[in-house]
Amino acid sequence: MDDLYRENILEHYKQPRNVGELPDPDLEFEDSNPLCGDELKVQLKVGDDERITAVRFSGHGCAISQASASMASEELVGMPVEELIRLDRSFVLDLLGIDISATRMKCALLTLKVLKSAGLGQAVAWESDTPPSAAELSREG
């Protein structure tokens, strides 16, 4: 099953969705991962109903950071901004569908950090660097 997810990640990396610039974005933010140099800029258009109507991203980085931006961009149109700012790391990690090592976690979560920062109009902190352990997950379930 991991192979299917890996193929999807590579496909989004090689042919990313929603790349480019929006004229007159309503919300935008850019940031980088200082550990590896990945950079990401997100621009959003928002309708009168406070729902996202268009998404564009630009930047450069590894397959994980760029694929997560591409995958997330496909999920955002129609989403209320209020919902966007409540997303957590499971949103991105579920889209990627593979185990992400601790060293690659910030690569995966750069998209979430930039999206939430755009929605709030200010920089947000990184989500927790370390995924929950299996023991933590079994206690929750």
Write the layout of secondary structure elements.
Elements: H1 2-14, E1 27-32, E2 39-46, E3 52-60, H2 63-76, H3 81-84, H4 89-96, H5 105-120, H6 134-140
Antiparallel strand pairs: 1-2, 2-3
Explain what you see.
The chain is an alpha+beta fold. Helices cover 44% and strands 16% of the residues. The protein is built from six helices and three strands; from the N terminus they run H-E-E-E-H-H-H-H-H. The chain has helices at 2-14, 63-76, 81-84, 89-96, 105-120, 134-140, and strands at 27-32, 39-46, 52-60. A three-stranded antiparallel sheet has the order 1-2-3, covered by helices on one side. Helix 1 crosses helix 2 (63-76), helix 2 (63-76) packs across helix 4 (89-96) and helix 2 (63-76) runs parallel beside helix 5. The chain is globular. Mean pLDDT is 87; it is low at 129-141.
List keywords for this structure.
single chain; 141 residues; alpha+beta; 3-stranded antiparallel sheet; 44% helix; disordered C terminus
Largest sheet: 3 strands, antiparallel
Q: Helical segment tally?
A: 6
- The proportion of residues in beta strands is 15-25%
The beta-strand count equals 3
* Low-pLDDT segments: 129-141
Radius of gyration: 15 Å
Topology as a string of helices (H) and strands (E): HEEEHHHHH
What do the pLDDT scores average to?
A: 87
Shape field: globular
* N-to-C CA distance: 23 Å
Question: How are the strands ordered across the major sheet?
Answer: 1-2-3
Helix content estimate: 40-55%
In short:
The protein is α+β, with helices and mostly antiparallel strands and 141 residues long. Helices cover 44% and strands 16% of the residues.
